[in-house]
Design a protein that fits this description.
Blueprint: H1 2-41, H2 45-62, E1 67-71, E2 81-85, H3 91-95, E3 103-108, H4 117-124, E4 126-128, H5 133-148, E5 152-155, H6 175-183, E6 186-192, H7 195-198, E7 212-216, H8 230-248
Parallel strand pairs: 1-7, 2-5, 2-6, 3-4, 3-5
Antiparallel strand pairs: 6-7
């Protein structure tokens, strides 16, 4: 009986904390909305992307999640990169703006259907409907144009939350690596080590407070690869991230 009461109390505390986290997400986002709208109306996309960076800092501070950003290579804050993080949790989208370079997301069109958030996402970022070949091609073209205009991109190379056994990643899509070779823009692998613990994709909607580690790896020059070695490029980046995931999660 005592164990049941303790378990019930713990679940209740977790639910209250989840409500608090959701409230802070909504409040901080709404407070930032005027900045996002100004950026959209004035076509100052970079302003909106910078605001997203500061929103992430405010949100995670308010919900009490300590961040550890490990940067293994130098990044030019005015440079252009393709950031490639692993993807095990919806929290990954909120965490990635801790990268010190403003970027546009290339994300699922389903995000654009969320009220307010979806409108802002659609205007500042790039959406893709992976079920439609024509839309995938249009997204690729828009992404190339954004890179050529000097915007960095963040693309989850797994193509979504695919893994059922984190921290083991799923296979990588070729899109970001093909873009890198075509444009000469460097790939920056990112290891998100703890999001799947903090906010697991298990349908229970528990948010667990613990330190969140983000490893920003050294940029990889696509000049070392070619279209004929596209698979090697994908696998080299995948193995780099997976090795760091295994290390940080103590998996041999």
């Amino acid at each position: 009986m005592k164990n049941q009461q303790t378990n019930f109390l713990w679940i209740a505390v977790q639910r209250v904390y989840m409500i608090y986290v959701a409230t802070m997400f909504l409040v901080t986002f709404l407070l930032n909305t005027p900045v996002f709208l100004i950026a959209i109306l004035t076509k100052s996309d970079r302003l909106g992307l910078i605001a997203n960076h500061y929103w992430a800092h405010a949100f995670f501070f308010l919900v009490g999640v300590p961040m550890e950003i490990i940067q293994k290579g130098d990044l030019d804050k005015k440079g252009t990169y393709i950031f490639c993080p692993n993807h095990f949790s919806f929290l990954d989208i909120a965490i990635t703006p801790f990268v010190p370079v403003p970027f546009k997301f290339v994300g699922k069109v389903s995000i654009a259907k969320v009220p307010i958030l979806g409108f802002i996402f659609r205007k500042l970022h790039i959406t893709v409907d992976r079920t439609r070949l024509r839309d995938k091609y249009a997204t690729y073209t828009k992404s190339i144009s954004a890179l050529m205009d000097g915007f960095s991109l963040t693309i989850f190379p797994e193509g979504g939350i695919r893994s059922s056994n984190p921290p083991l990643m799923g296979s990588f899509k070729e899109g970001p690596f093909r873009m890198a070779i075509e444009t000469g823009v460097k790939i920056v692998p990112i290891t998100l080590a703890d999001n799947w613990h903090i906010f697991p994709d298990d349908g229970r909607y528990f948010f667990k407070r613990r330190k969140c580690r983000v490893v920003i790896h050294e940029p990889i020059d696509p000049a070392n690869y070619s279209m004929s070695r596209l698979k090697d490029f994908q696998e080299d980046v995948r193995q780099l991230i997976q090795k760091e995931l295994n290390h940080l999660n103590a998996i041999l």
